[in-house]
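#dry-run=false #mode=assembly
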Amino acid sequence: MTGGHDSAKGKLEAQGVTLRYDARTIAENLSVVIPDGSFTVIVGPNACGKSTLLRALSRLLVPSAGQVILDGKAIAGYPSKQVARTVGLLPQTSIAPDGITVADLVSRGRYPHQSFFRQWSQEDEVAVASAMAATQTTELSNRPVDELSGGQRQRVWVAMVLAQQTPILLLDEPTTFLDIAHQIELLNLCQDLNAAGRTIVAVLHDLNHACRYATNIIAMKDGTVIAEGPPAAIMTEKLVEDVFGLRCMIIEDPVSGTPLIVPKSGK
Amino acid sequence: MTGAYHDHSRARGNRPAAPATNTGPIDFGRRVAVLRLLGGRLSLRFDLRSLVTGVILLLSTAMIGAVSLASGKFPIPLADVFRALHGTAGDNIRMVVVEWRLPRLLLAFLLGAALGLSGAIFQSLTRNPLGSPDIIGFSAGTYTGALAVLLIFSGGYYETAAGALAGGIITAAAVYLLAYHGGAQSFRLIVVGIGISALLGALNAWMIRQADLQVAMSAAIWGAGSLNGLAFEQVWPVLLMLALIVPCLLILARPMRQLELGDDAAMSSGIHANRLRLMLMICGVALTAIVTAAAGPIAFVSLAAPQIARRVTRLAGVALIPSALVGGLLLTTADWAAQHAFGVQLPVGVMTVSIGGLYFLWLLLREARQ
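#status=ok
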């Protein structure tokens, strides 16, 4: 646990969790604090446990030891709809039912706010409209989701999780399958949401994106946290080599002034 | 009540003084109506096309129903049919219409609706139009259970019903466990189900072959799915079971729709996916078992009804109520045709296979051409 950032207060944290699928252990005794109001990006090589950690933080995966704490209480102790009103997750894969329109799908994000008798309140309507406005999907609202391009579709899924109006938003590889322009567009949207007060936790593959957008980076390898802190403080050539086994040079990003990772050729 | 219906563009509930929001009305790509009452404590969003479709389906069923109450060995004019239903007709006509023909008509509608519901449940759970109880073995399982009771214990109606339910649940559990591999995936469930269905089909045939000729004959006729000889004493248990299951399903309908988005998305919106799946499966198997117990395994209605409903309502995914209404219409129509269209009385199961099969083929061809 290196990284010299001060002990930030977190609404959401994992305390000594052991995460496993059936017999396969992904992480043991893992502790992570998500600083409140941060844009936290989790990076690490494939199969290091990033997505698994995200699943545990959103209660999709129950740790076999340790616990996830939300607002000072074990997350397992909350009613599940209350968790869903606090922590939203954009999963890696979701399924759009055949022929569903954009507005209908985005409305499904309101589920945790609804009940048998409150199926479409004024607040639902406002939340869905503003989620579509924020993701620029309003003009797509009457289109069937299966007719959209990959970039548009991802924006619709983001709109759905935005409509859930959770103070904490977890995004599992939200930029995969998007071209570079749509990746930047989506990350800008996340930055805006973060500036508007939401805590964002995203799993990203691109280290340069992570350095540019994150206020806090968690670097993981083999189910353990190697470094944690603001990009400028922790992103070193040694860290990249330790975590990814990649030799690189770090220069200053000419646009944003954040660390820019340039891989070295050869061995 | 009607005053509270709005076109969505003006939807402001019953609070005209509500502050205007800076967002315009949401275009769902379909006409919707919003109903908000009691200061927002009750709010519903209706899809107008589904409402209209539902009314048309009910009216069509009523028309077919009136015709089937009128037709038979003793043809009765439609006017007398209505008089009989009002209780103002003569005793003979009343007996034919109300005591002979009405229970059969009611059962055709109720059992058809049950099949439509159970098809919708399993197609939603498997997210696949092939995932209906008659394909994935649950119908065969209920028939096995019912046959076992009938042939081995020579049980009566209620024992047979219990046997059907037990057979369905055991089959569902077996299919589920065999297909389970870190979560039941729809494709595995269907493939395993088709296999189990074939096995049980063989077992059912063997059981019939082992039985006395007399019992075997009636079991085989019943096995084709028939509403012959059903009276009011068979209507009440069906009605009672539906009165128990349908309200549960109305509550489970919204989480069921949410589960169609995938387990991760459903769970992150606050749903216990596995618990919900179990409850839906129990409801679905029970619905299939009710039908099997009352009329034998009637094929194709649960496969076709949800898909037909989806196309006429143009809703996304499968919807429970439209599927039930289509199922009811399909079975009442099929039963009328089975009795009167060919001069001889056929088991309704033969008709559903033919009508449902033809319609489904047409749908598939139309899909393929698009």
